[in-house]
Amino acid sequence: MEEAVVQPAHVHAPPEGFIRKHIFSLDHKVIGKQYYGLALVAVFMGMALSWLMRFHLVWPTTKVPGLDLLSSTGAPGGVITPEYYLSLLTMHGTLMVFFVLTNAPFAGFGNYFLPIQIGAEDMAFPRFNMMSFWVTFVAFLVLVLAFVIPDGPPISGWTAYAPLSAVGKDAGPGLAWGQSLWAISIAIFCVGQLLGSLNFIATTLDLRTKGMTFMRMPICTWAWFITSAIGLLAFAVLLPACLLLLLDRMAGTSFFIPSGLVISDRLQNHAGGSPLLWQHLFWFFGHPEVYIAILPAVGIVSHVLITNMRKPLLSAKVIIYSMMSIGFLSWMVWGHHMFVSGMNPTSSLLFSFPTLTITIPATIITLIWLGSLYGANLQINAASLFALGFVSMFVSGGVSGFFLAQPSIDIYLHATYFVVGHFHMVMGVAAIFGILSGTYFWFPKMSGRMMNESLGKLHFWITFVGTYCIFMPFHYLGMAGNVRRYSSFVNDFMAPLMPVHKFISIAAFVTGGAQFIFLFNLIYSRFRGKQAPENPWNATSLEWSIPSPPPWDNFGGKHPVIYHDPYQYGVKGSKGDFVMQDSPEQV
Amino acid sequence: MASGNYAQVVEPSRFGGPDRASRSGIWVGIFAITMSFAAFTSALYVRQGSGDGTHIALPSVIYANTLALLLSSFTMEMSRRGIARGLGPEAFGLRKGMVWLVVTLVLGLAFVAGQYLAWRYLAAQGLYLATNSNSSFFYVFTAMHGLHLLGGIAALVYLIGRTAGSNYRFRQSLFDATAIYWHFMDVLWLYLLFVIGTRL
Amino acid sequence: MGKFFAVVLTLIALASAYPIVTHMYVQPVDISTHGHAIDEQLSDTMAEAGFAFLGAQLLLAFFVWRFSNRKNGSKVKHLPGGAKLMVATAFIFVGTEVLALGVLGQKAWAEVYFTAPKQDALQIQSQAGQFAFYFRYPGADGKFAPLHPDKIDEGNGNYFGLDLANDVEARDDIVTAELAIPVNREIHLLMHAKDVGHSFYVRELRIQQDFVPGLDLSVHFTATKTGKYEIVCTQLCGLGHYNMKAYLNVLSQDDFDKWLKEKASEQ
Predict the structure, then answer these.
(1) Residue A258: is the preceding peptide bond cis (ω within 30°)?
(2) Which of A142, A257, A514, C257 could form a disulfide with A270 if both were Cys (CB 3.0 to 4.6 A apart)?
(3) What part of C 176-215 touches A (C-beta under 8 Å)?
(4) Are residues B46 and A276, on separate chains, in Cβ contact within 8 Å?
(5) What Rg, from alpha-carbon coordinates, does chain C have?
(6) What is the pTM assigned to this prediction?
(7) Where are the beta strands (DSSP E) in chain B?
(8) Phi, psi of B114 (to 5 degrees)
(9) According to the model, what pLDDT value does residue A274 have?
(10) How far apart are CA B145 and CA B108, in angstroms?
């Protein structure tokens, strides 16, 4: 499919009035910022929850002042109970994976920049787009409601394994309305994501401007496109899973609950269901989900690196094909979360091969980045520092995957802190670094002002060193057999490991504190930052050809014409060592 | 010019841009819905491994519903082509297209009513949602399909409303997208009928 | 600042590798017959992962050191070999590694899962329930009586739901809270979940297997050293998950026989 025909008319009229401009806006840029804002709220909530968890693990009997106001049953006298710890854990995971990592890099930046980067006025379906954000917002409210109901939030983890999550309140506190709210929230979230993915795909296929062939789209556009394809299919599976879970919980069905279960001295009135069915459905979604979390960051980091290296990558096409391979392979590996789950052991081996194979495209991407750095004219700023930090974290997190991909090693490492270290490095750090890099890079465009560079660099250094201090030791704890999802460590073998936990908790408080530097920078710069020019980074893609911030219709009614790919760096252009995509000059 | 009672159809189907996006969009949506029903189907296969389902004899109203839905696809197609031919000054095709559209809507509603009758039939035999695994899946499959069909019905109502308004302009692509979706509901139902007929 | 990044990254990479290289992490002693295969696999993977980790981080550090904050007017250049070299390296390096790890790794997995328990393995049933493990030995008749969930009465010690009145085989079943086993004897552990998902994990045995409600699962293993080892639950099962444990007590054959007789008399 080559370039699309020029659009005949405005997609929607210019917005008027406060509500239309800022609340129920059809403008993809406003919607993108709304998603980002929601993610910002969710990430600080999630971070606060992790602080409470880290505090409890090291100082289990110490009061947290004021916590009993949030939950008198969960934290009587401010001391976190075992079940409340699990609630904090569940909500931390749910908020972070869904409302931060799926929202910010994909729905946030993607919504804002995809249409601009392909030369379109807006997304294909602005009304669906607006709906997708507000549906996601409702999902967020439903989830957070679980904090304030008497029984509290669910305690089954973000993975909500059945039958613990399916049988209801007999199995423990938080498993009554808390768990139901969780399932309802996630089901609503799926709908929002489906609407969003629909938009991304249709827009990328059909609204590219003249000259914008597929291969001339920036890498981050490709990343959003591939991610939306994955998301479309993944969330389409999670939604049925959540519905079946709700039916088991509220309508007495037995999709996931077998017979003969005695919980709290009560024989449960269910029969024939399969707990493994939940795991299969969940992880069939869950594994592609982690690539939904990381691929946009891969795209953003590539984009930021190219601009700051002042040279193209060794091959953008290879990165694009590698991202596609990752997307394709991601559907075949879900069973690696279930090696010791009671699944057929032959299946476990079958799943481990594609899992190990995914290392190949991931390595190709990393080597392309590294190889491209050779001979670069690398500019160091907050955005590029986070991008470089991403590369480092991607390696660290990916390498621990070698271990977990092998069933024999997983026998020993499953459900230990090794796993927690692995996924935090790739999702909790690398993906966040991608979001942060994108923020420092695109803030000037979105707000018309520059962020403070010194604060940005300070934020980077504390976060980079801090996250290594937090998550690298998790791997050593795992190797020693430290089990995860424990609210306290009462095992004999845990005593010598407690100093490591103390170190981690302190690192977590310091690193978390540094994020307030970022928040301050964000807010302060929004109002008092230096005015940003149209193209502060001398970059080539279309977003840098329009004012900062862009007008409501992006290109002022004009339709840009594209002459180049976005990698014209290190050339003798009329404006410097680059040529913009919409500039007809040849070099 | 078109008669005063009917809207003017603008922008015939073969344009690029937003029109093509509507068509891409509906196929993308269909893909997602297919994936959801694939998930439900795999749940059925896994669940049936426990062997605790008792065979459900489908009430004959189900077959009547199926016929109604198949017919409605035919009428939907007639409507779409009528509307397409109604392009430009010729109002005759447009009027005919509207009639077929209303017939489609009626048949769709008849299907939904008929499905409700099927549910009543099952309930009369003591087969409810939670009775056994086969009955659970029967209700889940028919409810999920019915829900999506209601979405299609809502689209039909919207189209009828817009077309009947006198000063309205709309895109052929909206019609095409609705038609594609409607046909998909038909195909999906045939698939589900096969599954519940042979597996439940 | 690019040079500073390079230095910090190098220090981080070396500091991360240090505990591994100096064996600071404490992996528990291996007391099983199959564990050595897992440990070897772990070592091999550690070496390859370490090589990849250090290689990538140090290369990143070096390139950032060398190519950041360059003099004005420095020309950009491209790596000889280009993308093709990177792709080839990835395929060859990772490809062989993947194959090696995957193929070799099957051995350890097969020892645990693809070999059937020996005919004379000692059968013991374990039950996991919120929040304790219980164990059942078949007694003199060598048979396990059927389980009746409706008869479970924890207050009276009937954890498994045995019907002593009607099931003759139940009368000699021995129920304990501790998993005692004879050393160097293969154990076939049957696994039953009472309520929700749990998991059986003994670090020293290099064994981990989920209890799945509704499924009859089992593991088999042979312990090679006497001693007391912790069995911990590793599948989130509710508020008491952190405290759900029992002891694996590996005894000499004589001591085991004595222990079993003692437990039988306590029933």
Answers:
(1) no
(2) A257
(3) 194-197, 199, 201, 203, 206-210, 212-215
(4) yes
(5) 26
(6) 0.95
(7) 8-10, 169-171
(8) -65, -40
(9) 95
(10) 12
Say yes or no: A391 contacts chain C, CB-CB below 8 A: yes
B-side interface with A, Cβ within 8 Å? 11, 15-18, 20-22, 24-25, 28-29, 31-33, 35-36, 38-40, 42-43, 46-47, 49-53, 129-130, 132-133, 136, 140, 144
| Chains contacting B (3+ CB pairs below 8 angstroms) | A
CATH homologous superfamily, domain B17-36+60-199: Cytochrome c oxidase, subunit III, four-helix bundle (1.20.120.80)
Domain layout of chain A by residue ranges: 27-256+270-545
**The pLDDT of residue C3:** 94
Subunit contact A280:B40, Cβ cutoff 8 A = no
Which residue from A258, A373, A479 is facing C214, i.e. has the nearest CB?
A258
Half-sphere exposure of A228 (CA within 13 A, CB side): 28
Q: What phi, psi does A263 have (nearest 5°)?
A: -125, 130
- What tokens does C238 get? 């509710």
- List all residues 6 or more positions away from A16 whose beta carbon is below 8 Å from its beta carbon: none
C-alpha to C-alpha distance for C226 and C247, rounded to whole angstroms? 12
Nearest CA to CA, how far is C2 from chain A (Å)?
6
Cα–Cα distance for residue pair A55/A541, rounded to 1 Å: 45
CATH tag, A27-256+270-545: 1.20.210.10
pLDDT surpassing 50 at residue A6: no
Identify the CA nearest to A452 among candidates A389, A385, A520.
Answer: A520
DSSP per-residue string spanning C132-165: EEEEEE-TTTT-PPPP-GGG-BGGGTB-S---TT
Q: What is the pLDDT of residue B6?
A: 38
Return the DSSP state at A36: H
- Count Cα atoms within 13 angstroms, Cβ side, for C40: 11
Q: What is the pLDDT of residues C153-165, one digit of tens each?
A: 888 889 999 998 8
Q: Chain B residues with CB inside 8 Å of A280's CB?
A: 42, 46
Q: Say if residue C85 is exposed, middle or buried (CB neighbours under 10 Å; 0-12, 13-18, 19+).
A: middle
Domain extent listing, chain B: 17-36+60-199
Q: Spell A201-237 as b/e; 16+ CB within 10 A means b.
A: bbbbbbbbbebbebebbbbbbbbbbbbbbbbbbbbbb
